[in-house]
Amino acid sequence: IAQAPEHSSNPQELAACADASMLTAKGAGKNRITVFDGDLARTEKGSPDRGVRTIAHLKMLQSLSNRLNRLNELPQIGNAILGELMTLLDYHACRVYVAEGEWLTPIAHRHEFSSASGEAVMPPPQRVGEGIAGRAAATRVSLLIDNSLQCEFAQQLPGTDDVAESVIATPLLFGDEVMGVVVVTKLGIDAFDADDARLIEVLAGQASVALKNAALYAAERTEAERARHLLERSNEFLRLSHELVEVRDVEEVARRATETVTKLLRCDSSSLWLQAEAGAGLTSVGGCGPAFDGHSEGANPSYPNVEPARLRTERSPFLIGADESKVETGTRQQLVAPLRFGGDRVGALVAGGAEFTPEDARIIEGIADQTRMALTNAEQFSSLETMFVSTVESLANALEANDEYTSTHARAITDMALEVGERVGLVGDELKRLEVGALFHDIGKIGIPKEILSKPSALTKDERQVVERHPVIGERILAPIRQLDGIGEIVRHCHERYDGGGYPDGLRERAIPFAARIIFVCDAYHAMTSERPYSEARSHEDALAELRGGAGSQFDPVVVAAFVSLFGAGSG
Prior knowledge:
Beta-Lactamase
């Protein structure tokens, strides 16, 4: 039979008394009633009640060991220690720290300190070697302090009252490694004894193993996360590399590169800046993120605040502070990766809005290398494309030898066709094919006798059949030229009617290439409004009326509507 001691404060002490009663009864023999009502509070050495207290401690340690074996998060381990110690020591405050280099960082605490105003004060990190916790970590020895006011290395928490406390500070050791420190305090002087210190030392042995396991678990998790990030970044690099191979537009290169920088560096914004030519200032060609949006149009040409000369000499990415920038972006710092091109021309790939690491510098350097190569290819392609279009125009102008009207006609309908193409939603390569197709749409007339093309009167049936061969001739002329792949089809069908009554194949509606349908409308308008040897020019209004009347039969109604919306209210 067990009765809780008079000053018992928790059920664990009653359970310990019951255990002591059972052990005493077993020792005394059978058929006896044993009553235990001793005090589990601090007992003198040799006292029969001391064993009861020891039993309670052992049960607490067993309970803690079982709990710690199931935990792998630092805060969970710290809170388990706090809870078990409270059941026996009834402390005023307890803090559990983990060692991180030269610092001890609190991971759990109970009964926070209170300032003079009554507000809670959180325990700050403690430097190893300073304060009670720091001294325990540095010496690797438990400290039993009877009066904190008389401890030469004790430090008062700022904002708290300076009162006398008893303190036990025990390092959590795993072999030679200090995993952390547990600090227990109780108001008053000489409130702890050596048994309390030994209890915490035993607890510290179990806790240090749990902390080490948690550290290993955290390291494994960190390594797994790092591996995941590396895989993600590798995949992004590969994706960007594949994408940039196909990109032929400088602005599109900038968009894809800056999106990748923002994603991989997890920064607020990124942008690409280039010199138009050596010696010029930096100008924006694209960017990503809210910090850049405000500067996408009319950006300060000196942003970021880096001289082109530095971009020519720096070999690796470098940091500049936000206060150095002439444009206020609200970023903490900027990471700049230089881009160097031929002829002393430079540029910069810039990331902003984060605290960058050496790993980030390596990432942006890799993206900058890919971007530089893609920009070089895009600019070379643009130069070749310009040369190609000029060549196309020169070839189209060669038609002037046979028909002076044909040359000016080709350029005129090309300009109109591009406007109509943009109005109906064509972009990029679609517009480029439309432009080249319009320039070449009558190139087959090279194979038509000049006397037929220049005949001042109406053509005979046989002569018209000869003229109607020119789309097929044009397709054959363009077929061997690889760069004009797909243009021949447009040239062949730009005289097909929407209702199928055109030539040479009698295609109808959507079977006719869309670019050819656009060229057909523009060709018809220009033919009607131009002076020819066999006909007078019609007015702008008459030509528009003819287009409207032929919409759905001769012409694609969508194209006619777009044409009229563009040119209906303007000059002919």
